[in-house]
Design a protein that fits this description.
Blueprint: H1 2-15, E1 30-31, E2 39-53, E3 61-73, E4 80-86, H2 99-109, E5 114-118, H3 137-146, H4 150-175, E6 182-192, H5 194-204, E7 235-239, H6 244-253, E8 264-270, H7 278-291, E9 295-300, E10 311-312, E11 315-316, H8 317-328, E12 332-333
Parallel strand pairs: 1-12, 4-5, 4-6, 6-7, 7-8, 8-9
Antiparallel strand pairs: 2-3, 3-5, 10-11
Length: 334
């Protein structure tokens, strides 16, 4: 059964090529209903290093910097909510500068958020054969027992590494909260497709998961990931993703990742999605309902995979996300 689930996950992927850190100001942030501020963008900030392969068949792992772009309003407000977004690409590729993500970053930063778009390691970083330090031995063993091709094995390694990187990016956000006047009591994490899969695993898994399974001896770059920082994700935004990574994590480590304290969740998913089936959204919705956690599932009728321009009742994805965050985080709107 494990092999069937694992291979189903990889087939799906290949198709789509706790304590809070209290801020100085603990009051509820104020955001704007309309575009109100110019946006400052800082690009290619290194948030951590991670191991990758030096060559196609190399046994040598090298340190590679991981980057994020950060967008914030040009104002003097010292109490800004946080939104970190993770791009898609099937763990094969993708970019933090996807035009739709840049548009989303400007939408939220111009209304008062600090918005970060992050890159992370993908299969292009893993063309060699030495996975020590890239994933824990349990993950490596499970992969090698169940993967049927080198591409499947690399995808599995990239899936773990991406999770480790995105958790490191969020810890970087917390560590730099004073610089950007972020209120880390109001953290939202979102993503699209593979980024949404990673979002869900980030918000629901324990903070040490996808990190502490590797020793610093095997991966010395862990020291660059702000390991002493902690975070609490308040809300998750899932654009056409699923909980499949958590299912694999549970198979590898035998841990049930869900509990009633998991972050609230907004899901937007195309009902005709041929890549990540709409049934995946229904499954996650059902899990949340069984735990009594607030969530919203918005069907994007007759839409396929990646419907960034979808609208429901006259509102686009950004507007629906804005409404969810404002209502559920009780943000003040001007």
């Amino acid at each position: 059964m494990y092999k069937i689930v694992f291979l189903s996950f990889l087939a799906f992927i290949l198709l789509i090529a706790c304590d809070s850190n209290e801020p100085a100001d603990n009051s509820i942030p104020v955001v704007q209903a309309e575009t109100s501020f110019s946006v400052i963008a800082e690009q290619d900030i290194i948030y951590a290093n991670g191991l990758s392969h030096e060559g196609t068949n190399s046994m040598i792992n090298i340190e590679k910097p991981q980057f994020l772009d950060i967008y914030y309003p040009d104002n003097n407000i010292t109490n800004r909510p946080v939104f970190m977004f993770i791009h898609g690409g099937g763990f094969q590729g993708g970019t933090k500068t996807k035009p739709e993500i840049i548009e989303m970053a400007n939408y939220f930063a111009s209304r008062g958020w600090v918005f970060a778009s992050i890159d992370y390691r993908t299969t292009s970083d893993f063309q060699g054969s030495n996975f020590t330090g890239i994933a824990p031995q349990e993950w490596i063993d499970f992969t090698m027992q169940n993967a049927t091709t080198p591409d499947e094995a690399r995808t599995s390694m990239a899936m773990y590494a991406a999770q480790r990187d995105c958790k490191a990016a969020l810890r970087w956000m917390v560590a730099n909260s004073d610089t950007y006047q972020m209120n880390t009591n109001f953290i939202t994490v979102g993503g699209a497709s593979a980024g949404a899969i990673t979002t869900i695993a980030l918000g629901i898994s324990n903070q040490e998961d996808f990190t502490n399974e590797i020793s610093i001896d095997d991966d010395p770059t862990l020291s660059t990931t702000n390991p002493n920082e902690s975070y609490v994700v308040k809300s998750m935004v899932d654009f056409w993703g699923s909980n499949v990574k958590l299912e694999i994590f549970e198979l590898v480590f035998g841990l049930d990742p869900y509990n009633s304290n998991d972050p609230e969740l907004f899901i937007a998913h195309g009902t005709l999605d041929p890549t990540v089936l709409y049934s995946e959204a229904i499954e996650l919705d059902s899990i949340y309902n069984s735990l009594g956690i607030y969530n919203e599932l918005v069907p994007l009728e007759d839409a396929g995979h990646g419907p960034w321009t979808a609208t429901v009742a006259g509102k686009n994805l950004f507007e629906m996300t804005f409404d969810f965050l404002v209502e559920r985080q009780n943000l003040r709107v001007e």
